[in-house]
Protein backbone atom coordinates (compact mmCIF):
# COMPACT_ATOMS: atom_id res chain seq x y z
CA UNK A 1 0.00 0.00 0.00
CA UNK A 2 1.41 3.38 -1.00
CA UNK A 3 1.84 6.22 1.47
CA UNK A 4 -1.15 8.31 0.40
CA UNK A 5 -3.42 5.25 0.18
CA UNK A 6 -2.32 4.28 3.68
CA UNK A 7 -3.19 7.72 5.00
CA UNK A 8 -6.55 7.78 3.20
CA UNK A 9 -7.42 4.51 4.87
CA UNK A 10 -5.98 5.35 8.29
CA UNK A 11 -6.76 9.05 8.49
CA UNK A 12 -9.72 9.56 6.19
CA UNK A 13 -12.05 7.22 8.04
CA UNK A 14 -11.07 8.84 11.35
CA UNK A 15 -11.86 12.31 10.05
CA UNK A 16 -15.19 11.21 8.60
CA UNK A 17 -16.22 9.28 11.70
CA UNK A 18 -15.03 11.75 14.32
CA UNK A 19 -13.78 15.15 13.30
CA UNK A 20 -16.21 16.37 10.67
CA UNK A 21 -19.54 15.70 12.37
CA UNK A 22 -18.17 16.90 15.70
CA UNK A 23 -17.06 20.20 14.17
CA UNK A 24 -20.49 20.66 12.66
CA UNK A 25 -21.59 19.90 9.10
CA UNK A 26 -25.24 20.87 9.36
CA UNK A 27 -26.66 22.45 6.24
CA UNK A 28 -27.34 26.12 5.69
CA UNK A 29 -30.37 27.67 4.05
CA UNK A 30 -29.97 28.95 0.49
CA UNK A 31 -29.05 32.34 1.93
CA UNK A 32 -27.35 32.86 5.26
CA UNK A 33 -25.41 35.59 7.02
CA UNK A 34 -22.21 34.70 8.89
CA UNK A 35 -19.58 36.77 10.66
CA UNK A 36 -16.43 35.20 9.21
CA UNK A 37 -16.31 32.86 6.23
CA UNK A 38 -13.25 30.74 5.52
CA UNK A 39 -12.81 29.07 2.16
CA UNK A 40 -10.65 25.96 2.45
CA UNK A 41 -10.52 23.23 5.11
CA UNK A 42 -6.79 22.63 5.37
CA UNK A 43 -4.36 23.65 8.09
CA UNK A 44 -4.31 27.34 7.06
CA UNK A 45 -8.11 27.52 7.00
CA UNK A 46 -8.48 25.78 10.35
CA UNK A 47 -5.81 27.98 11.93
CA UNK A 48 -7.81 31.00 10.78
CA UNK A 49 -11.01 29.38 12.03
CA UNK A 50 -9.51 28.90 15.48
CA UNK A 51 -8.76 32.60 15.91
CA UNK A 52 -12.07 33.74 14.41
CA UNK A 53 -13.92 31.10 16.41
CA UNK A 54 -12.58 32.46 19.70
CA UNK A 55 -14.73 35.53 19.04
CA UNK A 56 -17.66 34.30 16.97
CA UNK A 57 -17.92 30.54 17.62
CA UNK A 58 -20.66 28.91 15.58
CA UNK A 59 -21.08 31.97 13.36
CA UNK A 60 -17.77 31.14 11.70
CA UNK A 61 -18.17 28.85 8.69
CA UNK A 62 -15.56 26.87 6.75
CA UNK A 63 -16.35 25.84 3.17
CA UNK A 64 -14.47 22.76 1.94
CA UNK A 65 -15.08 21.59 -1.62
CA UNK A 66 -13.73 18.09 -0.95
CA UNK A 67 -15.26 15.17 0.96
CA UNK A 68 -12.92 15.47 3.95
CA UNK A 69 -11.11 18.09 5.97
CA UNK A 70 -7.35 18.43 6.36
CA UNK A 71 -6.23 19.20 2.84
CA UNK A 72 -2.69 18.17 2.06
CA UNK A 73 -1.45 18.73 5.59
CA UNK A 74 -2.70 15.33 6.78
CA UNK A 75 -0.36 13.62 4.31
CA UNK A 76 2.71 15.74 5.14
CA UNK A 77 5.73 14.33 6.98
CA UNK A 78 5.58 17.42 9.14
CA UNK A 79 8.96 19.17 9.22
CA UNK A 80 8.22 22.42 11.04
CA UNK A 81 10.81 25.19 11.13
CA UNK A 82 11.02 27.59 14.04
CA UNK A 83 13.48 29.79 15.86
CA UNK A 84 13.38 27.92 19.16
CA UNK A 85 16.34 29.00 21.36
CA UNK A 86 15.57 26.68 24.24
CA UNK A 87 15.53 23.50 22.17
CA UNK A 88 18.20 24.57 19.70
CA UNK A 89 20.64 25.48 22.49
CA UNK A 90 20.48 21.89 23.72
CA UNK A 91 21.94 20.80 20.37
CA UNK A 92 24.50 23.60 20.23
CA UNK A 93 22.57 25.56 17.60
CA UNK A 94 22.59 29.35 17.58
CA UNK A 95 19.63 30.86 15.75
CA UNK A 96 17.68 34.11 15.54
CA UNK A 97 14.77 35.76 13.76
CA UNK A 98 17.25 37.81 11.77
CA UNK A 99 19.19 34.73 10.63
CA UNK A 100 16.04 32.85 9.63
CA UNK A 101 14.70 35.86 7.74
CA UNK A 102 17.93 36.30 5.81
CA UNK A 103 18.29 32.59 5.02
CA UNK A 104 14.71 32.20 3.79
CA UNK A 105 14.98 35.34 1.68
CA UNK A 106 18.25 34.24 0.10
CA UNK A 107 17.04 30.63 -0.40
CA UNK A 108 14.15 32.03 -2.44
CA UNK A 109 16.45 33.96 -4.73
CA UNK A 110 15.83 37.25 -2.86
CA UNK A 111 12.45 37.48 -4.56
CA UNK A 112 10.21 37.17 -1.51
CA UNK A 113 8.73 40.12 0.34
CA UNK A 114 11.20 40.39 3.20
CA UNK A 115 8.59 41.96 5.49
CA UNK A 116 6.41 38.84 5.11
CA UNK A 117 9.40 36.56 5.66
CA UNK A 118 10.18 38.38 8.89
CA UNK A 119 6.58 38.08 10.09
CA UNK A 120 6.80 34.32 9.57
CA UNK A 121 10.15 34.10 11.40
CA UNK A 122 9.02 36.35 14.27
CA UNK A 123 5.93 34.21 14.85
CA UNK A 124 7.64 30.83 14.47
CA UNK A 125 8.46 30.35 18.15
CA UNK A 126 4.90 31.18 19.13
CA UNK A 127 3.61 28.72 16.51
CA UNK A 128 5.60 25.89 18.14
CA UNK A 129 4.29 26.86 21.57
CA UNK A 130 0.71 27.14 20.27
CA UNK A 131 0.84 23.62 18.84
CA UNK A 132 2.31 22.37 22.11
CA UNK A 133 -0.54 23.96 24.02
CA UNK A 134 -2.95 22.16 21.67
CA UNK A 135 -1.36 18.82 22.59
CA UNK A 136 1.58 18.34 20.21
CA UNK A 137 4.64 16.67 21.70
CA UNK A 138 7.80 17.37 19.74
CA UNK A 139 10.42 14.67 19.29
CA UNK A 140 13.72 15.38 21.01
CA UNK A 141 15.53 16.39 17.83
CA UNK A 142 16.25 19.48 15.73
CA UNK A 143 17.31 18.77 12.16
CA UNK A 144 17.86 20.05 8.63
CA UNK A 145 14.89 18.82 6.56
CA UNK A 146 15.24 17.65 2.97
CA UNK A 147 15.16 20.86 0.95
CA UNK A 148 16.31 22.92 3.93
CA UNK A 149 19.42 24.82 4.91
CA UNK A 150 19.63 25.08 8.69
CA UNK A 151 18.86 22.93 11.76
CA UNK A 152 15.62 24.44 13.00
CA UNK A 153 13.11 21.78 11.94
CA UNK A 154 10.84 20.15 14.53
CA UNK A 155 8.53 17.17 14.17
CA UNK A 156 6.18 15.19 16.34
CA UNK A 157 6.25 12.15 14.06
CA UNK A 158 8.65 11.12 11.32
CA UNK A 159 5.98 10.37 8.71
CA UNK A 160 2.70 11.88 9.86
CA UNK A 161 3.53 15.06 11.69
CA UNK A 162 1.15 17.05 9.49
CA UNK A 163 -1.71 14.72 10.41
CA UNK A 164 -0.98 15.23 14.10
CA UNK A 165 -0.76 19.04 13.79
CA UNK A 166 -4.02 19.24 11.91
CA UNK A 167 -5.74 16.85 14.31
CA UNK A 168 -4.72 19.01 17.27
CA UNK A 169 -5.98 22.20 15.61
CA UNK A 170 -9.17 20.46 14.55
CA UNK A 171 -9.90 19.34 18.10
CA UNK A 172 -9.53 22.94 19.28
CA UNK A 173 -11.74 24.27 16.49
CA UNK A 174 -14.36 21.62 17.28
CA UNK A 175 -14.71 22.98 20.81
CA UNK A 176 -15.52 26.42 19.37
CA UNK A 177 -18.50 25.00 17.41
CA UNK A 178 -17.25 26.37 14.11
CA UNK A 179 -19.38 25.03 11.24
CA UNK A 180 -17.79 23.04 8.42
CA UNK A 181 -19.57 22.40 5.14
CA UNK A 182 -18.01 19.57 3.15
CA UNK A 183 -18.57 19.05 -0.59
CA UNK A 184 -19.22 22.78 -0.85
CA UNK A 185 -17.30 24.62 -3.54
CA UNK A 186 -16.97 28.38 -3.37
CA UNK A 187 -17.34 29.72 -6.90
CA UNK A 188 -17.40 33.51 -6.63
CA UNK A 189 -16.63 36.38 -4.27
CA UNK A 190 -19.49 38.86 -4.05
CA UNK A 191 -18.60 42.56 -3.93
CA UNK A 192 -20.49 45.84 -3.80
CA UNK A 193 -20.03 48.84 -6.09
CA UNK A 194 -17.07 50.00 -3.96
CA UNK A 195 -15.25 46.70 -4.42
CA UNK A 196 -15.84 45.65 -0.80
CA UNK A 197 -16.48 41.99 -0.03
CA UNK A 198 -20.10 41.19 0.70
CA UNK A 199 -20.20 37.40 0.56
CA UNK A 200 -19.51 34.20 -1.32
CA UNK A 201 -21.52 32.20 -3.81
CA UNK A 202 -21.02 28.45 -3.49
CA UNK A 203 -22.21 25.18 -4.93
CA UNK A 204 -23.24 22.66 -2.30
CA UNK A 205 -24.06 19.24 -3.73
CA UNK A 206 -25.50 20.79 -6.87
CA UNK A 207 -27.42 23.48 -4.98
CA UNK A 208 -26.40 27.12 -5.09
CA UNK A 209 -26.07 28.85 -1.72
CA UNK A 210 -25.20 32.45 -0.86
CA UNK A 211 -23.33 33.33 2.30
CA UNK A 212 -23.44 36.99 3.26
CA UNK A 213 -20.41 38.27 5.15
CA UNK A 214 -17.99 41.15 5.22
CA UNK A 215 -15.00 39.03 6.20
CA UNK A 216 -13.66 36.26 3.96
CA UNK A 217 -10.41 34.31 4.38
CA UNK A 218 -9.20 32.47 1.28
CA UNK A 219 -7.20 29.35 2.22
CA UNK A 220 -7.83 27.04 -0.72
CA UNK A 221 -4.24 25.97 -1.33
CA UNK A 222 -2.18 26.49 -4.45
CA UNK A 223 -2.59 25.38 -8.07
CA UNK A 224 -0.26 22.37 -8.30
CA UNK A 225 -3.20 20.08 -9.17
CA UNK A 226 -4.18 22.33 -12.09
CA UNK A 227 -1.97 21.15 -15.02
CA UNK A 228 -3.05 24.01 -17.26
CA UNK A 229 -1.97 26.62 -14.70
CA UNK A 230 1.28 24.77 -14.01
CA UNK A 231 2.16 24.72 -17.70
CA UNK A 232 1.14 28.36 -18.13
CA UNK A 233 3.29 29.72 -15.33
CA UNK A 234 6.24 27.32 -14.96
CA UNK A 235 9.62 28.69 -16.04
CA UNK A 236 11.34 25.33 -15.46
CA UNK A 237 10.94 22.01 -17.30
CA UNK A 238 7.74 20.22 -16.28
CA UNK A 239 8.74 16.55 -15.97
CA UNK A 240 5.31 15.56 -14.59
CA UNK A 241 1.86 17.04 -14.17
CA UNK A 242 1.11 14.76 -11.25
CA UNK A 243 1.46 16.11 -7.72
CA UNK A 244 3.34 14.71 -4.76
CA UNK A 245 0.01 14.63 -2.90
CA UNK A 246 -1.57 12.56 -5.70
CA UNK A 247 1.29 11.01 -7.70
CA UNK A 248 -0.81 8.42 -9.51
CA UNK A 249 -3.63 10.82 -10.36
CA UNK A 250 -6.20 8.57 -8.73
CA UNK A 251 -7.22 10.58 -5.64
CA UNK A 252 -8.92 13.86 -4.90
CA UNK A 253 -6.54 16.82 -4.84
CA UNK A 254 -8.21 20.18 -4.33
CA UNK A 255 -5.19 22.40 -5.06
CA UNK A 256 -6.58 23.73 -8.34
CA UNK A 257 -6.07 27.46 -7.76
CA UNK A 258 -9.66 28.31 -6.78
CA UNK A 259 -8.81 31.02 -4.26
CA UNK A 260 -6.33 32.62 -6.64
CA UNK A 261 -8.90 32.63 -9.43
CA UNK A 262 -11.64 34.11 -7.23
CA UNK A 263 -9.30 36.76 -5.88
CA UNK A 264 -8.13 37.81 -9.32
CA UNK A 265 -11.76 38.09 -10.45
CA UNK A 266 -12.31 40.89 -7.90
CA UNK A 267 -9.09 42.72 -8.75
CA UNK A 268 -6.53 41.02 -6.52
CA UNK A 269 -2.90 41.12 -7.54
CA UNK A 270 -0.75 37.98 -7.81
CA UNK A 271 2.96 37.53 -7.28
CA UNK A 272 5.62 34.86 -7.99
CA UNK A 273 3.30 32.67 -10.08
CA UNK A 274 6.30 31.19 -11.90
CA UNK A 275 7.75 29.86 -8.63
CA UNK A 276 6.63 26.25 -8.88
CA UNK A 277 8.40 23.59 -6.86
CA UNK A 278 9.00 20.00 -7.94
CA UNK A 279 10.18 17.20 -5.66
CA UNK A 280 11.04 13.49 -5.76
CA UNK A 281 8.81 11.74 -3.24
CA UNK A 282 6.87 8.90 -4.82
CA UNK A 283 9.75 6.48 -5.36
CA UNK A 284 13.05 5.55 -3.81
CA UNK A 285 13.66 8.48 -1.46
CA UNK A 286 13.13 7.39 2.15
CA UNK A 287 14.54 10.25 4.21
CA UNK A 288 12.98 13.58 5.06
CA UNK A 289 16.24 15.10 6.24
CA UNK A 290 19.55 16.01 4.65
CA UNK A 291 22.78 14.06 5.15
CA UNK A 292 21.84 10.38 5.14
CA UNK A 293 21.38 9.61 1.45
CA UNK A 294 23.01 10.12 -1.93
CA UNK A 295 21.43 10.76 -5.35
CA UNK A 296 22.94 9.21 -8.47
CA UNK A 297 21.89 9.18 -12.12
CA UNK A 298 21.24 6.37 -14.60
CA UNK A 299 25.01 5.90 -14.94
CA UNK A 300 25.54 5.57 -11.18
CA UNK A 301 27.21 8.96 -10.80
CA UNK A 302 26.40 11.77 -8.42
CA UNK A 303 25.04 14.84 -10.20
CA UNK A 304 23.71 17.29 -7.60
CA UNK A 305 23.99 18.62 -4.05
CA UNK A 306 21.44 16.49 -2.19
CA UNK A 307 20.96 19.35 0.25
CA UNK A 308 20.46 22.06 -2.36
CA UNK A 309 17.30 23.89 -3.30
CA UNK A 310 14.47 22.07 -5.01
CA UNK A 311 14.85 24.37 -7.96
CA UNK A 312 18.46 23.21 -8.35
CA UNK A 313 17.40 19.57 -7.98
CA UNK A 314 14.60 19.96 -10.53
CA UNK A 315 16.92 21.44 -13.13
CA UNK A 316 19.58 18.79 -12.46
CA UNK A 317 17.20 15.80 -12.65
CA UNK A 318 15.58 17.15 -15.82
CA UNK A 319 19.02 17.05 -17.48
CA UNK A 320 19.71 13.41 -16.60
CA UNK A 321 19.15 10.41 -18.83
CA UNK A 322 15.50 9.39 -18.46
CA UNK A 323 14.82 12.34 -16.13
CA UNK A 324 15.08 10.18 -13.01
CA UNK A 325 17.53 9.54 -10.17
CA UNK A 326 18.39 6.76 -7.75
CA UNK A 327 18.17 7.59 -4.03
CA UNK A 328 20.53 5.43 -1.95
CA UNK A 329 20.87 5.06 1.81
CA UNK A 330 22.04 2.33 4.17
CA UNK A 331 21.05 0.56 7.37
CA UNK A 332 21.95 3.43 9.74
CA UNK A 333 19.65 6.16 8.44
CA UNK A 334 16.34 7.05 10.09
CA UNK A 335 13.79 5.95 7.49
CA UNK A 336 10.50 6.19 9.36
CA UNK A 337 7.59 3.86 8.65
CA UNK A 338 7.54 4.26 4.86
CA UNK A 339 10.26 1.65 4.35
CA UNK A 340 8.10 -1.44 4.79
CA UNK A 341 5.39 -0.23 2.41
CA UNK A 342 7.95 0.79 -0.22
CA UNK A 343 9.74 -2.56 0.03
CA UNK A 344 6.44 -4.38 -0.41
CA UNK A 345 5.48 -2.26 -3.41
CA UNK A 346 8.93 -2.60 -4.98
CA UNK A 347 9.55 1.14 -5.04
CA UNK A 348 12.56 0.50 -2.80
CA UNK A 349 14.91 -2.48 -3.05
CA UNK A 350 17.50 -3.90 -0.69
CA UNK A 351 21.03 -5.16 -1.34
CA UNK A 352 23.74 -6.70 0.83
CA UNK A 353 26.61 -5.32 -1.23
CA UNK A 354 27.41 -2.45 -3.58
CA UNK A 355 27.85 -5.01 -6.37
CA UNK A 356 24.39 -6.46 -5.80
CA UNK A 357 22.89 -2.98 -5.73
CA UNK A 358 24.67 -2.04 -8.97
CA UNK A 359 23.37 -5.19 -10.65
CA UNK A 360 19.78 -4.41 -9.67
CA UNK A 361 20.22 -0.79 -10.78
CA UNK A 362 21.88 -1.96 -14.03
CA UNK A 363 24.84 0.33 -13.58
CA UNK A 364 28.56 -0.36 -13.58
CA UNK A 365 29.65 -1.80 -10.19
CA UNK A 366 33.01 -0.05 -10.42
CA UNK A 367 31.39 3.32 -11.20
CA UNK A 368 28.91 3.00 -8.33
CA UNK A 369 31.62 1.90 -5.89
CA UNK A 370 33.82 4.82 -6.93
CA UNK A 371 30.87 7.20 -6.48
CA UNK A 372 30.11 5.92 -2.98
CA UNK A 373 33.74 5.83 -1.90
CA UNK A 374 34.26 9.44 -3.01
CA UNK A 375 31.05 10.57 -1.29
CA UNK A 376 31.94 8.79 1.94
CA UNK A 377 35.30 10.51 2.03
CA UNK A 378 33.51 13.86 1.69
CA UNK A 379 31.14 12.82 4.50
CA UNK A 380 34.08 12.01 6.79
CA UNK A 381 35.67 15.38 6.02
CA UNK A 382 32.38 17.30 6.17
CA UNK A 383 33.22 18.98 2.87
CA UNK A 384 32.02 18.34 -0.69
CA UNK A 385 34.27 19.93 -3.35
CA UNK A 386 32.20 18.41 -6.16
CA UNK A 387 28.75 19.88 -5.45
CA UNK A 388 29.09 21.95 -2.29
CA UNK A 389 27.04 19.84 0.12
CA UNK A 390 27.57 20.97 3.70
CA UNK A 391 25.26 18.76 5.79
CA UNK A 392 26.34 15.18 6.44
CA UNK A 393 24.91 12.94 9.15
CA UNK A 394 26.74 9.73 8.22
CA UNK A 395 28.73 7.83 5.63
CA UNK A 396 26.78 5.40 3.44
CA UNK A 397 28.72 2.16 3.78
CA UNK A 398 26.85 0.03 6.32
CA UNK A 399 24.83 -2.72 4.56
CA UNK A 400 22.12 -3.48 3.79
CA UNK A 401 21.69 -0.72 1.24
CA UNK A 402 18.24 0.62 0.38
CA UNK A 403 17.68 2.23 -3.02
CA UNK A 404 15.01 3.11 -5.51
CA UNK A 405 14.20 5.28 -8.52
CA UNK A 406 12.60 8.65 -8.02
CA UNK A 407 11.09 11.18 -10.39
CA UNK A 408 9.89 14.74 -10.00
CA UNK A 409 6.27 15.66 -9.38
CA UNK A 410 4.74 19.08 -8.74
CA UNK A 411 4.99 19.66 -5.01
CA UNK A 412 4.19 23.27 -4.15
CA UNK A 413 3.30 26.54 -5.83
CA UNK A 414 4.93 29.49 -4.08
CA UNK A 415 3.01 32.10 -6.07
CA UNK A 416 -0.46 33.40 -5.41
CA UNK A 417 -2.42 36.35 -4.09
CA UNK A 418 -0.38 39.32 -2.93
CA UNK A 419 -0.90 40.07 0.77
CA UNK A 420 0.50 42.46 3.37
CA UNK A 421 1.74 41.73 6.90
CA UNK A 422 -1.87 41.62 8.15
CA UNK A 423 -2.71 38.93 5.56
CA UNK A 424 -4.98 41.40 3.76
CA UNK A 425 -5.29 40.76 0.04
CA UNK A 426 -4.02 43.62 -2.10
CA UNK A 427 -5.32 44.78 -5.46
CA UNK A 428 -3.19 45.62 -8.50
CA UNK A 429 -2.74 49.17 -7.15
CA UNK A 430 -1.29 47.86 -3.90
CA UNK A 431 -4.40 48.74 -1.88
CA UNK A 432 -6.18 46.28 0.40
CA UNK A 433 -9.46 44.77 -0.74
CA UNK A 434 -11.82 45.50 2.14
CA UNK A 435 -13.02 42.31 3.80
CA UNK A 436 -10.61 39.90 2.10
CA UNK A 437 -7.70 38.00 3.69
CA UNK A 438 -5.68 35.02 2.48
CA UNK A 439 -3.28 32.50 3.97
CA UNK A 440 -1.22 29.47 3.08
CA UNK A 441 -0.40 28.30 -0.41
CA UNK A 442 -3.12 30.56 -1.84
CA UNK A 443 -0.72 33.46 -1.29
CA UNK A 444 2.57 34.50 -2.85
CA UNK A 445 5.53 36.62 -1.83
CA UNK A 446 6.55 34.64 1.25
CA UNK A 447 8.95 32.07 -0.22
CA UNK A 448 10.23 33.44 -3.51
CA UNK A 449 11.70 31.11 -6.11
CA UNK A 450 12.02 28.13 -3.80
CA UNK A 451 10.24 27.36 -0.54
CA UNK A 452 12.61 26.18 2.15
CA UNK A 453 11.44 22.82 3.46
CA UNK A 454 9.86 23.09 6.90
CA UNK A 455 8.28 26.48 6.13
CA UNK A 456 5.08 25.26 4.46
CA UNK A 457 2.96 24.48 7.49
CA UNK A 458 4.70 27.25 9.43
CA UNK A 459 3.45 29.70 6.79
CA UNK A 460 -0.04 28.12 6.95
CA UNK A 461 -0.30 28.47 10.71
CA UNK A 462 1.32 31.88 11.12
CA UNK A 463 -0.62 33.65 8.38
CA UNK A 464 -3.76 31.57 8.96
CA UNK A 465 -3.90 32.79 12.55
CA UNK A 466 -3.11 36.37 11.50
CA UNK A 467 -5.85 36.27 8.86
CA UNK A 468 -8.37 34.81 11.30
CA UNK A 469 -7.62 37.38 14.00
CA UNK A 470 -7.83 40.34 11.65
CA UNK A 471 -10.94 39.08 9.86
CA UNK A 472 -12.67 38.62 13.21
CA UNK A 473 -11.64 42.08 14.42
CA UNK A 474 -12.95 43.60 11.18
CA UNK A 475 -16.23 41.71 11.47
CA UNK A 476 -16.66 42.78 15.08
CA UNK A 477 -16.16 46.42 14.18
CA UNK A 478 -18.32 46.44 11.07
In short, what is this structure?
The chain is of the alpha/beta class.
Tell me about this structure.
The chain is an alpha/beta fold. It has 14 helices and 21 strands. A six-stranded mixed β-sheet has the order 6-3-2-10-20-19, sandwiched between helices. Strands 1-9-8-7 form a four-stranded mixed β-sheet.
How is the topology of this model organized?
Elements: H1 3-23, E1 31-33, E2 36-39, H2 43-56, E3 60-63, E4 80-81, H3 85-90, H4 97-107, H5 114-122, H6 124-133, E5 153-154, H7 161-175, E6 179-181, E7 184-191, E8 197-204, E9 207-212, E10 216-218, H8 227-233, H9 258-265, E11 270-271, E12 276-280, E13 294-296, H10 310-318, E14 325-329, H11 338-345, E15 349-351, H12 354-361, H13 365-381, E16 401-406, E17 408-413, E18 416-418, E19 424-426, E20 432-438, E21 443-444, H14 456-477
Helix pairs in contact: 1-7, 2-7, 2-14, 4-5, 12-13
